[in-house]
Amino acid sequence: MTKPIRLNEQLCFSIYKAQKQFNHFYSQALAKYKLTYPQYITLLSLYEHGTMSVKEVGQTLNLDSGTLTPLMKRMEKDGWISRKRSAQDERRVDVSLTKKATDMRDEIYEHVGSCMTYLRFPDEVYDAIKAQVDSVDEHLAAIPDEELQ
Amino acid sequence: MTKPIRLNEQLCFSIYKAQKQFNHFYSQALAKYKLTYPQYITLLSLYEHGTMSVKEVGQTLNLDSGTLTPLMKRMEKDGWISRKRSAQDERRVDVSLTKKATDMRDEIYEHVGSCMTYLRFPDEVYDAIKAQVDSVDEHLAAIPDEELQ
DNA sequence: ATCGAGCTTATTGTAGACGATTTAATTAGG
DNA sequence: CCTAATTAAATCGTCTACAATAAGCTCGAT
Which top-level group of life is the source organism from (chains A, B) (predicted)? Predict the structure, then answer.
């Protein structure tokens, strides 16, 4: 008697698939820089805000140190960032961009920007979809965990 | 002179965040069944289509055997599915639902369905957002990899 | 009958994601 | 001023995700 749940009618599944498509899109677009998508958004956040602690980067990306520590170690090994314990507060690790990262900044902006043109969405459509997805995110975030048990 | 890319203006980032919120939402809603979201959609697909090979399940979910084999082994251990090599074609592994899974079907539909009401989107809004996200997915899927290099 | 092309599943290696725990450093309270 | 609580990062365990590779099977052509 219960209404069946069809996968292709579920918004969660559409978002799940779209996220994987974006991941594939960026893995192609970023291959020449050997950056993954999570590494790329870490870089974007540092371009935007400058040197930050691991915690602060995590707040901009909704990621915790369990994800960021190994990711940033890989980015450090690849020469994008440097990590240094703060002298003022030795609990913090400050993450800053290397010369390579600042030198490549405009090229990366330009290359990724040109890749985005292949999406071929007019700005208004792009903005409208983004606003709706953001509202889904906010609605979900507002649900207390207890409601779901 | 290149236009900076602001994280919070990127559709990819909105979708990335929304996908993680949905993951959290379902991890709460499915906790009582000890199912993860990828396990849940595997179950949904089997409820919908009945016994299938690993390959066919993968086609409904856009996942390959590298993801599905270990995931399904866990679901088998937890008593949701059984895996058996096909007698007709011994390359295939047929995946079918256990009695537990069919017995729980309506309860799971109902519980997840009731959790969805907390999203509080009218059907038309839900459908409109879903259609737009699907179109993003399709647009991305249509871009040949070579364009992005 | 058998050989090989092509298909299906399994395995491996790398990278994310996140909850839970641990360790170290800082702050606050009595 | 010292201990308790808080905070930050790292670590660990578990679960995805996917590319690349391996292994085994089927079927058709010879």
Answer: Bacteria
Token pair belonging to B9: 């203006």
Q: For residue A87, say whether its CB is under 7 Å from any atom of strand C.
A: no
CA of B105: how far to CAs of A30, A55, B113, in Å? 42, 42, 12
Domain locations in chain A? 29-139
Could you tell me the CA-to-CA distances from A43 to A31, A65, A101, A113 in Å, in that order? Answer: 15, 16, 8, 15
Quote the pLDDT of residue A1.
66
Q: Which residue of A has its CA nearest to B126?
A: A11
Which nucleotides of strand C come closer than 7 angstroms to any CB of the protein? 6-13, 15-20, 24-27
- Interchain contact, A134 vs B14, CB within 8 Å: yes
Mean pLDDT of A2-17: 93
CA–CA separation, B119 vs A77, rounded Å? 42
Does residue A71 lie within 7 Å of nucleic acid chain C, judged by its CB?
A: yes
Q: Is B123 on the interface with A (CB under 8 A)?
A: no
The 3-state DSSP class for residue B62 equals coil
CA(B80)–C1'(D18) in Å?
25
Which CATH architecture fits A29-139?
Orthogonal Bundle (1.10)
- Domain at B33-124, CATH from 1.10.10.10, 3.40.50.2000, 3.20.20.70, 1.10.730.10: 1.10.10.10
